[in-house]
Amino acid sequence: MTKIINSKIKLVFTLVAIALTSTIANAAGEKQKTIIAKANTLPVRVGPKPLPALEPLREAKPPLGWLQFCRERPEECRTERSPARVIPYTAAMFQEIDRINRHVNAEIKPVTDQEQYGVAEYWTYPETGEGDCEDYVLLKRRLLMQLGYPREALLITVVRDKKGDGHAVLTVKTDRGDLALDNQIDDILPWHQTGYRYVKRQSQEDANVWVALDDGFTAPAVTAR
């Protein structure tokens, strides 16, 4: 009789365990669905409607730092004209460029060109582990191109920052508007939410041609520092 009772108790516990396991699995499944759903709506700052356009006005002089970079690394600037391209905006795309942006920002120590090279302006890859804004931009651009993103949608851009100083960011052209990758903040923002004044950037068709930008303000030409 005792054996029968014990068997019944074991059966009850087994059934309870199965029920709990099923409940936990269902809950985990629902949680995973929630995570995926949230990922597919990231970032909330970028809505389904196109962002205000950042329009080219006219051809502009390339920054002296870009000309120096091309003299020293001609293979980096030996490109042919090609049609403008944009990147389809998806949650996966945003997460990938966000990962690159945060990785470079975390790995590179900010120093001025004067501190590192003894000159006011010097564009290069931050191979020493240190660099200024243009060096961050060059590295992010190269890493994204290595991942398969088109050069025509990855544009080195000269701005005035919130202090009015010359600065550089990487603008990524998507079918929902331009995003700014910045070394001063980790969050990727739509260009018009950065608080910067946009001055000029590379042409989409030719990386060696630069164009002045219309961001809704009249900004004087500056060099990035």
Attribute tags:
225 residues, alpha+beta, two-stranded parallel ribbon, 6 helices, 9 strands, 39% helix, disordered C terminus
Report on this model:
With 225 residues, the protein is an alpha+beta fold. It is 39% helix and 20% strand. Helix 4 packs across helix 6 (133-146). It is globular, with a radius of gyration of 25 Å. The relative contact order is 0.17. Mean pLDDT is 82; it is low at 11-29, 31-45 and 218-225.
What would a concise description of this structure say?
With 225 residues, this protein is α+β, with helices and mostly antiparallel strands. The chain has helices at residues 2-39, 64-72, 74-77, 91-107, 113-117, 133-146, and strands at residues 55-60, 109-110, 130-131, 154-160, 166-174, 177-181, 189-190, 197-202, 210-214. The protein contains six helices and nine strands.
Helix/strand layout:
Elements: H1 2-39, E1 55-60, H2 64-72, H3 74-77, H4 91-107, E2 109-110, H5 113-117, E3 130-131, H6 133-146, E4 154-160, E5 166-174, E6 177-181, E7 189-190, E8 197-202, E9 210-214
Parallel strand pairs: 2-3
Antiparallel strand pairs: 1-9, 4-5, 4-8, 5-6, 6-7, 8-9
What would you report as the Rg, rounded to the nearest angstrom? 25 Å
Spatial strand order of the main sheet: 1-9-8-4-5-6-7
Helicity, as a percent range: 25-40%
Shape: globular
> How far is it from the N-terminal to the C-terminal residue, by CA?
88 Å
Poorly predicted regions: 11-29, 31-45, 218-225
Query: Strand share of the residues?
Result: 15-25%
Can you write the helix and strand succession as a string?
HEHHHEHEHEEEEEE
How confident overall, as mean pLDDT?
82
